[in-house]
Write a structure and sequence with these properties.
globular; 15 strands; five-stranded antiparallel sheet; single chain; TIM Barrel; alpha/beta
Length: about 400
């Protein structure tokens, strides 16, 4: 979906396909047919943006076989789909029964992360629509925090500088500009937008910036205005924004609230949980750990890194952080010029929701994703953006 900003630039809205992960190129082609095109049809649009997640094997096939890339591009065109952004955070196994900490490997200290991201950039230059010259890729925020030291920081910086040089060369070769954004996430070396400023300033290259995920922003209790103003002041480019909402518990000391939260404690993904105290942010690596006795102070609200559907906040006594998303979006695209032009709805946890809330069929999942995109579209038009055909 495309929108015209009042300043005349085009803002792209997509949804991320890691909600129905596929490890191979054949799997990606199937997901276009079974999931992405049905969502487009529900929206009544001739064209729908998708943020592709390409696992290692799929990316390798596309970058080593030009005919495979042509097949994918042809299928996108045939099904009324377009790609301007890729989710480069998960490397492989995102559809596994247990993902948890595995999603952070390989990190930016491992040469394979550089090679994989380079491959994604090359693939994206071949997938961009004919009238689009800029693409974006989100990536993990350097590494999980445990064991990360100064030597690792230097390895990461060197790898990202090498990536920037490769992106420059790719631009010269293809005429298409690809940018990569570190995506701050609770528990990682770069947990907040503030944590991103120093390492990105050390790189100081406009092809390497930040991907702001509004669920992660909210989980860490960051104020959107303050966070985005700090990025602007530091001249850190917002490469893309993932529109997502976290799980919010206003009164975590109440038994009924803990019972409601426990329904979201599931075995597949990490759900880092945070609370803001007078002494600073406190947290656990997972929701189950937070619910253990005395693990977290419970005199103030808790937020958990659980991407809940944008249009469907959980039932009381819980809610979502949709207001944080609204505030962030207002700052990102509601001003005289957009801070970013790539927006991506990223609710990958539909099948991790409590059983009663999960879609039971592909049709229900398509309905839900279409409803999320409709909400995002309405937020954009309320800010003065005009949807394009």
């Amino acid at each position: 979906m495309r929108f015209r900003h009042p300043d005349g630039t085009t803002v792209h809205l997509a949804y991320c396909t890691n909600v129905h992960p596929a490890e191979t190129l054949d799997g990606v082609l199937t997901q276009l047919r079974d999931h992405c095109e049905p969502v487009r049809r529900r929206l009544g649009r001739d064209r729908l943006g998708i943020g592709l997640w390409l696992a290692r094997d799929a990316a390798h096939a596309l970058v080593t076989d030009p005919s495979a890339l042509r097949v994918l591009r042809t299928e996108l065109d045939r099904r009324g789909l377009e790609v301007v952004t890729l989710n480069g955070f998960p490397y492989e196994g995102f559809g596994a029964e247990k993902v948890k900490y595995r999603v952070y490997k390989p990190d930016w200290t491992d040469p394979e992360r550089l090679e994989h991201t380079t491959a994604l950039a090359r693939v994206l230059t071949g997938l961009l629509p004919d009238d689009v010259t800029e693409g974006s890729i989100s990536t993990l925020p350097l590494a999980w925090r445990t064991g990360y030291d100064e030597a690792d920081a230097e390895k990461s910086r060197t790898a990202l500088l090498t990536l920037a040089e490769r992106l420059d060369a790719l631009h010269e070769l293809t005429g298409r500009s690809i940018r990569v954004g570190l995506e701050p996430e609770p528990g990682c070396v770069v947990e907040t937008t503030g944590d991103a400023i120093a390492p990105l300033a050390a790189i100081a290259h406009d092809r390497i910036g930040i991907c702001v995920d509004t669920c992660h922003l909210a989980t860490s209790f960051e104020d959107p205005q303050t966070a985005l103003d700090a990025l602007t002041t530091a001249r850190v480019p917002v490469v893309k924004t993932q529109l997502s909402a976290a799980l919010h518990a206003e009164h975590p000391h109440l038994p009924e609230v803990r019972e409601a939260l426990a329904a979201f404690d599931e075995p597949r993904f990490l759900h880092q949980t945070r609370t803001a105290t007078a002494a600073g942010l406190r947290g656990t690596d997972d929701l189950g750990a937070a619910l253990a006795a005395d693990a977290l102070p419970d005199g103030a609200p808790w937020r958990a890194h659980f991407h809940v559907p944008l249009h469907a906040a959980p039932a009381a006594p819980l809610t979502s952080t949709l207001p944080v998303l609204r505030a962030a979006l207002t700052r990102l695209v509601g001003g005289p010029h957009p801070l970013t032009r790539h927006l991506e709805v990223e609710t990958y946890t539909w099948q991790a929701l409590p059983p009663a809330l999960r879609p039971r069929a592909r049709t229900q999942l398509a309905d839900g994703i279409a409803a999320e995109l409709t909400l995002a579209r309405d937020l954009l038009t309320d800010l003065g953006l005009k949807e394009l055909p």
